[in-house]
Known about the structure:
The structure holds two protein chains of two kinds. By secondary structure, chain A is mainly α. Chain A has one domain. The radius of gyration of chain B is 17 Å and the shape is globular. Helix content of chain B is 87%, strand content 0%.
Amino acid sequence: MxxxxxLVLAGVAVFATVGDSLLARGMKGLxxxxxxxxxxxxxxxxxxxxxxxxxxxxxxxxxSCYMAALSWADLTYVLPAxxxxxxxxxxxxxxxxxxxxxxxxxxxxxxxxxGVGFVAAGPSVTPIHHGEIADVPxxxxxxxxxx
Amino acid sequence: xxxxxxxxxxxxxxxxSTTGDVLxxxxxxxxxxxxxxxxxxxxxxxxxxxxxxxTFALGVLAMAVAFYSLLxxxxxxxLSLVAPASASLTFVFNAVAARIFLQERVGRRRWxxxxxxxxxxxxxxx
Lengths: 147, 126
């Protein structure tokens, strides 16, 4: 793992969370999308909302970073590692916008951070096809999952 | 009634996005390290090789299904239920699917990470 690869992972986290927030903001402004086949145009028109458009743009950036990350790292490495975005959003809300964070959210932040620490301390690729054992076999935790 | 819709959306989002993640991860492993490819062959080769991988299109399709289910779900149900619940479930589903379909070694470390993150994401809603 090089510094550049960590930057790509950070890009996945940041672009995904900011993009999602913008989308949510835009969709809330639209109110209930009436879901029926007669009202598909309403859904397509959602793209014209500037918040939704900006959100989609950022999600495209997220997607590029995500694809790059998946080209050199395992899915089960990339997903937990990039979940720091949730923590980032909460911290920005707290320290930037002075939102109150409940103790359950602080606990959530702690768990996510611990999870990221767990996966980041291990190998980013499990080279099963190269005949190396890079991680502990899962049957030590989940006996029923033995293949 | 809207609860039922919300949970239907949550299930659909989780399954579709797991399917998409697995297909996209499979595709990108076949393409190879895009950083190296970019340096040696240039950006056009990278884009061309990604787009001509058949499973990539399927993955994008599954992601589109997940994306639109999430949009519907967000307008039906509470944002603080639909988004974290589907995100949380996706981490667990992905750990199982990556092990089965991608033959990734999901060992104790990876399982702990997936479960901790899933629990953490669910807690963030409260």
